[in-house]
Amino acid sequence: MNIEIQFKQSLGETNFDIDLLLPGNGISALFGRSGAGKTTLINVISGLVTPAYGKVVVGDHVLFDSDKGINLPTHKRKIGYVFQDSRLFPHYSVNGNLLYGVTSKDDIYFNKVTELLAIKSLLKRFPVSLSGGEKQRVAIARALLSKPSLLLMDEPLASLDMPRKREVMPFLEELSEQVNIPIIYVTHSLQEILRLAQHLSILDKGRIMTSGKLEEVWASHSMRPWQSFSDHSSLFEGKIAGHHSKYALTCVKLAPKACLWVQKVDGDPETPIRLQVRSNDVSITLEKPVATSIRNVLSATVASIEAFNPGEDKQSITVSLRLDDDCLLWATITPWALDDLNLKVGDEVYAQVKGVSVTQRDIAFSPH
Prior knowledge:
six-stranded mixed sheet; 22 strands; about 40% strand; disordered C terminus
């Protein structure tokens, strides 16, 4: 199943020309500047905005097709929508809010959703007595209880302070793992993308700049405007290979010939795990180091050499290092180091990785 969105529309000063194909599972993040058109795009999917031309298809379910004259009303699209603010009915209890719009009661599913979002103890309370994080969890549960075929989330954490964001984030992580519903997630937060998304689309001025697997888009030039010198990093979707019980470390396999040690993470072998390595935590040496405190030393081939953000910082060079056929690691070095090492594309080198983050568990590790 895929989600297909194609439409053209002029709204205000923005001329939309969208052609987007999203996977029918997991969390697909929509990212871009304020005013790029993220909310308009999901409103077209939901039926809140009708474009002049195009089509919207979720799997085999045609929601809109201008050529065929199909335009299903919002209530028939089987879409759940979670807004920035919870939009709960103040005169209904939590239980009343959850059941609003439910046409066929399903106690088993109700229990599953309320347990997943840890709101069973809130059922008799009213929205005025809930924290911001509790309200958003109720709003997410209400959207799920309509049994949608697609869930739209428009910056659901934007109105929350940091403690409340930290409260809700684990539930969103669980949501993508436990509920078999594709989620389109609008956000302007890179950290939310790192923690939650599997697919990323960048939107600018009503057009899709790039779209694909998170790791691929993260490494693309389209991400550069949002990454400062300290933010530039590599993402890897690896699998647990094993654990070192004596030193409480976990070995994560990135590719057949590339592994990284991180602080111990609970999980059986082959459990998927996402890693982030900041490019300024990677150094390059021409010879394999000996007697070093750094645990992660990987053989690599120089794949590319380029200036990084020359308008912002002309004294940095980024080098992409090929660890395996489809596995690239970014390193940031100085022009002096580039000249001193005399690096060229195709050179065989060693990468020393000083720091690794496990983004989906919010664990940081500096293996010195």
